[in-house]
Amino acid sequence: MKNYFIRLLNYDRYANETILAAMLKTDPPEKSIQLMAHLLTAQQIWLNRCKGLPPIASVLWPEGKTEAFVGTITSNSEAWSSYLDTLQPDDFEKAISYKNSQGDSFQNKLSDVLAHLINHGTHHRAQIGQQLKFAGIESLPNTDYIFYIRQLNG
């Protein structure tokens, strides 16, 4: 299971970098910048929850600058990879206890949190793509998972 989630998180990094490259080629709409800032902040929030650390001192919808996202994508990806490297097979079935942004307490299996994390990124990248289309970008890059896998397999 560890290798599966490592592959998905590598895909997530690729997809974030790919959509960010499209954003950097234009003057992106403010909404697309907000969505990317949120996506990256949520990754940090979930990592702290999984590690049992206190919440980061950040808002869920922060302001951001597209140029700064390159470094954040890299650091988030490296932090998640480091975390996954510490896990044993049984850890993916363990409950993660956390509070959401409203202070409500929840418990979810780590494997479900990781699935959510990947799907959350896909959801918001689609919204970013839509915002870029509204702004006049005619062709968006392909961020489909299967396209990524085909590239890996040559």
- The CATH topology, please? Four Helix Bundle (Hemerythrin (Met), subunit A)
Order of helices and strands: HHHEEHH
Radius of gyration, CA atoms, in whole angstroms = 16 Å
Question: What is the average of the pLDDT values?
Answer: 95
Main sheet makeup = 2 strands, antiparallel
Which shape, going by the Cα principal axes? globular
How many E-type strands?
2
Fraction in helix: 55-70%
The total of helices stands at: 5
In CATH terms, the superfamily is: dinb family like domain
CATH architecture identity: Up-down Bundle
What is the C-level CATH assignment?
Answer: Mainly Alpha
Count of distinct structural domains: 1
Strand order, sheet with most strands? 1-2
Report the sheet-strand fraction.
Answer: 5-15%
Uncertain stretches of 5 or more adjacent residues: none
What structural category do the secondary elements indicate? mainly alpha
Amino- and carboxy-terminal Cα gap? 23 Å
Task: Tell me about this structure.
Helices cover 64% and strands 6% of the residues. The protein has five helices and two strands. A two-stranded antiparallel sheet has the order 1-2. Helix 1 packs parallel to helix 4 and helix 2 packs parallel to helix 3 (66-85). It is mainly α and 154 residues long. The chain has a single domain (2-152), classed as dinb family like domain (Four Helix Bundle (Hemerythrin (Met), subunit A)). The mean pLDDT is 95.
